[in-house]
Write a structure and sequence with these properties.
Elements lengths: L10 E5 L4 E8 L8 H13 L3 E5 L3 E4 L1 H17 L4 E6 L4 H13 L3 E5 L8 H4 L5 H22 L6 E5 L5 H10 L3 E6 L2 H13 L5 E5 L12 E7 L8 H11 E12 L5 E3 L2 H16 L11 H7 L3 E11 L5 H21 L4 H19 L4 E12 L3
Parallel strand pairs: 2-3, 2-4, 3-5, 5-6, 7-8, 7-10, 8-9, 10-11
Antiparallel strand pairs: 1-2, 11-14, 12-14, 13-14
Helix pairs in contact: 1-2, 5-6, 5-11, 9-12, 11-12
The structure holds S-adenosylmethionine (SAM).
Length: about 400
């Protein structure tokens, strides 16, 4: 576990609507008496539940044997008296020990099953957590940083702050932010083990210290409430099937008065000249294709609404266009070549016909053609938005 993973105080909460009993934080009682109240709450949850009772341990940072045995005793007893009820323990790979520990109960009583929630969050997850995504992320950040470095101070970035980059990918944004703005603390969290391994390797190679790379699930973070002045989450709400869950967590960890900064795209607004029609067709189809993977790559302009609905005020929204004229046009071409490969694989996974995939790929190639053409113009628009957590 990383030093950045700070355990929340222990909580045992029953939500009758979703029939979910959640254990959160660090639970290390010296005797069962210390957790008598939580055990009573657990018994009440079982009494009230019909059909299935979910036992959510996704944010259970630590549990000692005293607590484990006390809760296990209650659930095992219930299996004997309540044949009408099933228990589903929902764990997360972020707290991998819980899966091993609770699996034993399933071996004793078939009424108890264990599910690892984040082994498959959403249909497109495997694509964004794969090593083949690394060069795409690297090329993208190279292009976006030129714009973001001037935008960020308007949204709350400044020296000396505590910041978190949630869904940090390969961590290159955190490195650039550290060099340019010298925050006092940076936590960079992602759910892709290959991306984090890459980030740590690059940091070691270039002597970058002070960035706390953390494995975690952005929708269930083990980070404490109200601890960051500035929280960034770039290009990620749009690939997550429940962006509002992520925003709830971003809101939770930012300090009152602090700001959350998000960037997202609207892929159907990617453009190029010449060959505009072919390019337009492909990006329209891309938005449609990704919706089948529960990703909303049209989310950019919706950022204002998402931030407002999550409770933020003083919302700022701006957009910028990455173009082939920003620097070396080959950088732009590299980004699009990466997209072509990844999105063609997703189209094949979705079962699109070979003729469709050929035409789909052609639009990306035409975008590259426009980017590298001596008189061409190619663009990729991005929306940056931030909101303040009310004091
Ligand atoms: C499109 S990438 C953006 C990465 C980075 N912010 C950037 O702009 O280069 C989305 C990132 O979200 C991560 N991710 C997806 N679901 C996540 C989750 N539930 N918790 C943490 N990270 C997640 C993926 O592993 C991936 O690195």
């Amino acid at each position: 576990m990383s030093t950045a993973v700070l355990a929340a105080p222990f909580q045992a909460v029953f939500d009758a609507n979703s029939q979910e009993f959640s254990l959160v934080g660090v639970i290390r009682p010296r005797s069962v008496d210390e957790i008598a109240h939580s055990i009573t709450e657990f018994r009440r949850a079982i009494d009230e539940a019909r059909g299935v009772l979910y036992i959510n341990v996704k944010r259970l940072a630590q549990m000692n044997n005293t607590a484990f045995h006390a809760f296990s005793r209650v659930v095992l007893d219930a299996c004997r008296t309540r044949s009408d009820i099933r228990f589903v323990v929902v764990t997360s790979s972020v707290v991998g020990w819980t899966e091993r520990m609770f699996r034993h109960l399933g071996k004793i009583e078939p009424q108890i099953t264990v599910e690892v929630y984040d082994s498959k969050f959403y249909p497109g997850q495997s694509f964004v957590e794969d090593t083949s995504f690394i060069p795409i992320l690297r090329a993208q950040t190279k292009m976006t940083w030129r714009h973001e470095r001037t935008i960020l101070p308007r949204h709350g970035m400044r020296p000396g702050i505590a910041m978190a980059d949630i869904c940090c990918g390969i961590g290159d944004f955190a490195v650039l932010a550290q060099k340019e703005f010298q925050p006092a603390r940076i936590v960079a969290l992602d759910h892709s083990k290959p991306s984090l391994a890459y980030a740590r390797e690059v940091a070691a190679e270039f002597g970058v210290t002070g960035i706390e790379y953390t494995y975690g699930d952005a929708s269930e973070m083990l980070l404490e409430d109200n601890q960051f002045d500035f929280v960034t989450c770039r290009h990620s709400l749009q690939i997550f099937n429940q962006p509002e869950l992520l925003l709830k967590e971003l809101y939770r960890i930012v300090k009152p008065g602090g700001r959350v900064y998000i960037t997202n795209e609207k892929n159907s607004h990617c453009l190029g000249e010449p060959r505009a029609q072919s390019i337009q067709w492909t990006y329209n189809e891309l938005a449609r294709l990704l919706s089948h993977f529960e990703m909303d790559v049209e989310l950019g302009p919706k950022g204002r609404r998402y931030l407002a609905d999550a409770g933020f005020d003083d919302i700022l929204v701006e957009s910028f266009m990455i173009t082939n004229l920003d620097g070396d046009p080959q950088d732009f071409a590299d980004v699009i070549a990466g997209w072509e490969k990844m999105f063609a694989a997703m189209a094949a996974r979705h079962g699109e016909a070979p003729e469709f995939i050929d035409r789909f790929r052609q639009g990306f190639r035409d975008h590259i053609f426009a980017a590298l053409h001596p008189k061409g113009y190619a663009g990729w628009p991005i929306w940056a938005a931030s909101g303040r957590k009310p004091l």
